[in-house]
Amino acid sequence: MRYLMTARNTETTPAPDEKLFVEMAAFVEEMTAAGVLLATGGLAQEGVRLVSRGDELTVTDGPFAETKEAVVGFALVEVDSKEQAIELARRFRRIVGDGESLVQQIFGP
Length: 109
Hints:
Elements: E1 2-8, H1 18-33, E2 37-42, E3 48-53, E4 56-61, E5 71-78, H2 82-96, E6 100-106
Antiparallel strand pairs: 1-5, 1-6, 2-5, 3-4
Helix pairs in contact: 1-2
């Protein structure tokens, strides 16, 4: 089962420091060695929003006013269960501290 784990920027998101980078690198290395990490990365606050309504398509360049709601990073994992994905997300949150993450199962091949 594949899951997309995303992290959002919040008012309580601490600034990264050297300790965070070291702990995160070890966590990423562990997940890679275990064969569960398929991809990971950070996302720029800038982006493009596309909204469609009928035949109308609106394109808006970012950054957007509500940057606290923006997804700032992601990990794509392949695990045996939802519980395993949640445990990985718990470990991630323990490393990065206060904030918000979302875990969603990916359907399809």
